[in-house]
Amino acid sequence: MNHTDFNRLLNKYLLGFAVALILSILSYVVVTGEWLGNAVTTMAVLLFLATAQLVIQLVCFLHLGFEGRSRNRTYTIAFTVIMMLIIVIGSLWVMRNLDYHMGMSSEDMNDYMQQQNKKGF
Amino acid sequence: MSRQTNEMVIERYEKAEFGFWLYLMTDIILFASLFATYMVLRGNTAGGATSADLLDPKYALIETGILLTSSFACGVAALALRFKKVNLAVWSLAATLLLGVVFLLLELNEFTQLVSEGNSWQASAFLSSFFTLVGTHGLHITIGLIWGGAMAYYILRHGRTANSVRKFTLFSLFWHFLDLVWIFIFTIVYLGAAL
User: Fold this and answer.
1) Which 38-67 residues of chain A touch chain B by CB within 8 A?
2) ipTM of the predicted structure?
3) Helices marked H in B42-124
């Protein structure tokens, strides 16, 4: 716990801050500059940039790693991320499937719901 | 304090920190459910305004920069407190809270503008899920600001003690976590709207 330790840790925070800022601006520019014409590709790139920023902040700000005290935290967040992906991807999959089996397009469904809404419940 | 009791105290602190971390993990599941809801419902605008009409990525980028700077300042404050630089810790904490308040005001400004133009949470399923997701994050920020204010009072009153370092560690975990959630709100909600 001396002065060089402080500077070393401060540099870690500064590095995390700079990289996170650059990644945020980069994802903004990718969208507004329309670098990639295709919306699906753009979203994939955006999610990659967000995940990169997540990892950078977890390491630099929350000090996650595989040594000593942080190991249990790293394992629990890895498990939680798996749960999170199951919830999000699972929900999207189930709802998309349900939408498909409704037998009408979502635009038709939207019109139909609005007609019903006008009639009053 | 004898060496043995000192080790017991440290062990208790570590358990408290891990317990708080587990709470944050359950919060991830909460936000995951809200993100899933938003992604399912974002197209269901009931003939009203869509996300592309209402959400401004530039405004969100400014909010992102402010919250990220606040998160960084909070990390510096935690570090300074550990290394007994109380002055730096207090000023960094003040910057953290000030930026947090600015972020919250920007968000409230956006919400009131949406509602005043008739795009409240009652207008469509898209807006319900939007307000629930972003509002839950804003509620966390509000609680974090109250907690941070209490931390500032504690540090000013008691100075740098083992207790203030431990309490501040938990607060900084919470504050960094909120910035992590915001990255995904920025990407999926605001940048997704501009696609």
Assistant:
1) 39, 42-43, 46-47, 49-50, 53-54, 57-58, 61-62
2) 0.89
3) 51-54, 57-82, 86-116
